[in-house]
Specification:
The chain has helices spanning 6-23, 25-35, 53-77, 87-117, 124-135, 137-140, 144-173, 179-196, 198-209, 221-237, 241-268, 288-298. With 329 residues, the protein is an all-alpha fold. Helix 2 (25-35) packs antiparallel against helix 11 (241-268) and helix 3 (53-77) packs antiparallel against helix 4.
Amino acid sequence: MDRPGFTTSLVAGGVAGVAVDLILFPLDTIKTRLQSPQGFNKAGGFRGIYAGVPSAAIGSFPNAAAFFITYEYVKWFLHTDSSSYLMPVKHMLAASAGEVVACLIRVPSEVVKQRAQVSASSRTFQIFSNILYTEGIQGLYRGYKSTVLREIPFSLVQFPLWESLKALWSWRQDRVVDCWQSAVCGALAGGFAAAVTTPLDVAKTRIMLAKAGSSTASGNVLSALHGVWRTQGLSGLFAGVFPRVAAISLGGFIFLGAYERARSLLLQLGRERPCVGDSTPGTALKTGSAMQAAVRREQGDLEDVSPLPSAGRHTHAEPQPQRYSQPPE
């Protein structure tokens, strides 16, 4: 069992995370304001849609990097044969572990960002200082449990669906999916997962925006959901579903391009030689005889592509056509 290219995944994932968060920031702002207790217009409407962007810019790279390094390590640690029926379980466990670790960085950044988004007149540093002064470090981690409880179900829905769509498309065209086809599958799976987990995202937003000392601020997800249901009904639980689905679906394409381009550049520069037989994204990119040997070993193995959160990713090597005698299960 070879050790995967952790550094390459960390850097490429961090670059991709920054690209996605900054490009799609306006959609995230609109989603947050739709979910805020005071309502869309009072929260700022379409004004100042880049409020809170410094917090996102600072937190994006370490957040994505933390996820990737954990995700790749757990996949390596739980190594199984690519044909094993346990492969989807391995992906889900790796993604869940990655989310738990990444949220240690994501949540403080998210708390500051969302408060800035619904209070565009306040500066990001001013909001950060005020949280520390009034609530301490604990205030920055308000909503940690609700964020994790949102991300894990999202991963459990997205990954099996993404793999099934990808395998079905490969079977229908009698060869491994191309990069853009993997992106389409990832966008569809991510969009569906985003839609069904929107109530958890609403609860997370309400908890992060609640006034200190209130019952919602305690972080009880069920209590937050009940409060939304009691005051706004089903429409409240799915507030912001359209910008959320749009952002995550579009993010799949942006993340794919940024992640693969960054990883390809790093590997071509020889900063880190990937391990032969590794199933992590992009590790099929080899040079010289090592590349030829790796491609021969990887022919017929659909596990070239590994699921990653909110986006489909594909290796850079050109896999040989794969024949399927029956539909994938």
